[in-house]
Amino acid sequence: MPDYKFYYFEVRGVGEPARMAFHYGGIPFEDIRVPQQEWPDLKKKMPQGTVPCLFIDNGKIKLSQSSAIALYIGRKVGLAGRTELEMARVEEAIATYKDLYTKMADYCYTMTGFKDMDKDELYEKQAKPVSAQYFTLLSKMLKKHHNTFVASQKPTVADFFFAEYLSSVNGFAPELFKGHEGLLDYVKRVHSIPQLQDYLKKRPKTAW
Fold first, then answer.
1. In angstroms, rounded to a whole number, what is the distance separating the alpha carbons of residues 162 and 96?
2. If you read the UniProt record, what top EC class would you report for this enzyme, in one word (predicted)?
């Protein structure tokens, strides 16, 4: 089995789905959580100057980008779709997640202390309209699969992206879920997956 070293910051963020996929499949890996003060030096070693980044076989192969890494591990452990259509649905769902993430980024980063912007203005102009649009869309995606998961009736890495994001947003803006309570049930469903229980119980608690 290849040697895996996974680099990301000391948060869940966009790196958590890959961590969850590793634990879901029982694949050993070194989970390297990078303190901010160490990042300037480490950044030089990253092929795109970013994390998450996965080093394979002692760094002979380096893979960047959160979705690429999560899908790479997901394919190994049965979390990337079982048919060609399901595989496409997984990629569709992750792309939708990225749209949501990008459009609400300033608000979320401000609420978690990574940016210093006007949170009240961002709430009205960004969080409320974007969450209303995408929470409705996500609910429709779940309904297609009998309110189980977003890309099929089995979990995929796309669910890990959404569940972690929604869990974080619920931590600082629970009122956004009014009328979308089913999404919180969805988060609980993902976090109840048996293969994840040991990891979820012991992972560090972070706001994001």
1. 10
2. transferase
Taken in order of first residue, the domains within the chain and their CATH numbers are 4-78+195-202 (3.40.30.10), 84-193 (1.20.1050.10)
Tokens of 44: 């030089």
Q: What is the DSSP letter of 82?
A: S
What is the spatial distance between Cα 33 and Cα 180, in angstroms, rounded to a whole number? 33
pLDDT band (50, 70, 90) for residue 2: confident
What tokens appear for 6 in the block? 């996974």
Contact 56, 2 (CB under 8 A): yes
Q: What six digits make up the tokens of 2? A: 């290849």
Alpha helices (runs of H) in 16-156, residue ranges in sequence order: 16-25, 39-43, 66-77, 84-103, 105-111, 119-122, 128-144
